[in-house]
TrEMBL record:
InterPro entries: FAD/NAD-bd_sf, HpyO/CreE_NAD-binding, L-asp_N-monooxygenase_NS-form. It comes from the Bacteria. SUPFAM superfamilies: FAD/NAD(P)-binding domain. Residues 11-173 form the FAD-dependent urate hydroxylase HpyO/Asp monooxygenase CreE-like FAD/NAD(P)-binding domain. This is FAD/NAD(P)-binding protein.
């Protein structure tokens, strides 16, 4: 009699958005699965960027509701079915529900947890075995010939080894073990509670993106409050006795991010710089992919917005000089004057449902160009990271209007300035004084409190936190020496005869070769890709088992 094959076993390490979308993709399975989700925190389903233990209520998410790929419900649909009491509990009024709205990270986390819990229930109802283990940190992994062994340590000190057929490392962001590594010097804005000790002093923040803005807001709201003005906009009212609180945000360019701009969804199709064109370039085997990509990019941009192309002198630019022209207009103006005008423009365009052609074209192109970036030569990838990448990041990393309003309010209250660092500066955070000392243009500036908020740094093979994988030699650096070598399905790429079904979706290890792999939409794409790869492997195995069973019956 043919034996009954055990259920395919799948470990998902982490329970944030990438894990959520991986689980959603596994819903398409034609055979029952045995799934275990490991979450190091005490609660599963939110993801650390949206967890209450990490964030402050003033920290805003970096994605509009309309952009979030639904799992069981759209975010607006889920919010609209909440009672007034439930909305009040998360700090939201029914009138504030809108598909274009940017919600606080804590509200987004509540939505993600509801989707996660509902998805687990749906998977179980479909006949899958699903366990969610919280307070369970995966501390090691080893590849065997037929299985993957994970070592799991619980918060109560218990440890165990578990065997799986497939493992998905969806651990998301990498956070430092200690945020304040010396008095007044913080290596990260998170957890936000770590910044509560900054009181009534000069604060420096390296970074000007939403992460830096959120760090600033955490400290600013500990020293005062933002108040709605009768004529619109915000005013910052400092508390008495906080005269010493002043903040400086700083970056190499010294620019404030653009305000979120209106764009059409679904995306309007591109004409020249298309997905098909990118795939053709990859298949062509050309060694000058970056130049070829830029040529298509420039043609698409000129077609989308001829006036903008003429204004920046597009015909005279190349892949190495475009970014300089792109940022030039903003750099010629006072950052706060530009932010004020840009915010007014963005609000007007949103009211009129008008998408600025050049901004909208760049936004759409970054998604198709992302298909080619992993195939760049080492030299081209370095060139891409050096300048051209910045224009796409700037375009898609626009920030909520409320964030710009808060920056302007702080500036008008005399509490905020911005500093252009350029390339020739030094920061000393190892001296005896608290915080850090900035050395710029021959001057020393001491910040008794200093926060590093430059976003997630890319990690490489040596940083993998699983010592056995490193000893096995299956974690290799990608070409160029940064990131890790992965195949097209994000499996570790190696030649040893070991179980291959271990997938790395941990953001810091992807960033070098996949620089746009950030945010919830990327989590969706990654989860869909890995979920499909796992199901394809399982279906092949099932077909092989069926064939073997049929042979056994014939032999009998």
């Amino acid at each position: 009699m043919p034996s009954i094959a055990p259920l395919p076993t799948i470990a998902v390490v982490g329970s944030g958005p990438t894990a959520l979308y991986t689980l959603s993709a596994l819903q398409k399975a034609r055979t029952p699965l045995d799934i275990t989700v490991f979450e190091a925190l005490d609660e599963a389903g939110r993801g650390s960027p949206y967890a209450p233990s990490i964030n402050n209520k003033v920290m805003l998410s970096n994605i509009a509701s309309i952009e979030i790929p639904p799992v069981l419900d759209t975010m607006v649909g889920w919010l609209e079915t909440r009672t007034d009491k439930e909305l009040a509990a998360i700090g939201l009024e029914r009138s504030e529900i809108d598909e274009r709205e940017y919600y606080p990270r804590l509200i987004l986390g509540t939505y993600l947890k509801a989707q996660f819990d509902g998805l687990i229930t749906a998977l179980q109802a479909d006949g899958h075995t699903v366990r969610v283990e919280t307070g369970a940190r995966v501390t090691d992994a080893a590849l065997l010939f037929e299985k993957i062994r994970l070592t799991v340590e619980r918060t109560d000190g218990a440890a165990s080894s578990r065997l799986f057929d497939h493992a998905v490392l969806a651990t998301g962001h990498s956070w430092p073990d200690r945020t304040e590594i010396k008095p007044g010097y913080f290596t990260s804005p998170w957890p936000a509670s770590a910044l509560n000790g900054i009181r009534n002093c000069s604060l420096g923040i390296r970074g000007t993106s939403l992460s830096a803005i959120d760090a600033l807001m955490t400290v600013a709201t500990n020293h005062g409050a933002f108040v709605e003005q009768d004529g619109g906009g915000l005013r910052y009212e400092p508390e008495p006795g906080t005269e010493g609180f002043k903040a400086t945000i700083m970056s190499r360019k010294g620019l404030i991010p653009e305000a979120d701009f209106f764009y059409h969804l679904p995306f309007h199709p591109l004409s020249i710089c298309t997905e098909e064109a990118m795939e053709a370039l990859v298949e062509s085997g050309r060694t000058d992919l970056l130049e070829a990509v830029y040529e298509l990019f420039a043609r698409e941009l000129a077609r989308a917005d001829p006036d903008y192309a003429a204004r920046i002198g597009l015909e005279e630019l190349n892949v190495d000089t475009f970014a300089e022209a792109y940022f030039a207009e903003r750099q010629r103006q006072d950052p706060f004057d530009y932010a004020r005008a840009n915010l007014a423009e963005a609000k007007g365009n949103a009211a009129n449902h008008y998408a600025v052609p050049w901004r909208y074209a760049i936004l759409r192109m970054h998604e198709v160009i992302a298909l080619v970036v992993p195939h760049f030569s080492v030299a081209d990838l370095e060139r891409f990271h050096r300048s051209f990448k910045a224009i796409f990041v700037d375009d898609y990393a626009s920030v909520p209007h409320e964030s710009i309003e808060r920056l302007l309010a702080l500036h008008e209250a005399g509490k905020l300035s911005i500093l252009k660092l350029g390339e020739d500066y030094d920061l000393d955070a190892e001296g005896p004084e608290p915080g850090a000392v900035l050395m710029l243009d021959g001057k020393l500036i001491h910040y008794p409190a200093f926060v590093e908020a430059r976003g997630q740094e890319s990690l490489s093979a040596d940083d993998i936190p699983f010592p056995t994988l490193l000893r096995q030699g299956v974690v290799r650096k990608s070409a160029g020496g940064r990131g890790i070598a992965l195949d097209d399905s994000y499996r570790l790429s190696f030649t040893r005869p070991l179980r291959r079904e271990i997938y790395c979706l941990s953001l810091p290890f992807l960033l070098y070769r996949h620089p746009f792999a950030q945010g919830i939409t990327s989590s969706h794409e990654l989860g869909e890709c890995v979920g499909a790869a796992i199901l394809e492997t399982i279906e092949k195995s099932v077909r092989a088992d069926v064939a073997a069973s049929e042979r056994e019956e014939l032999a009998a």
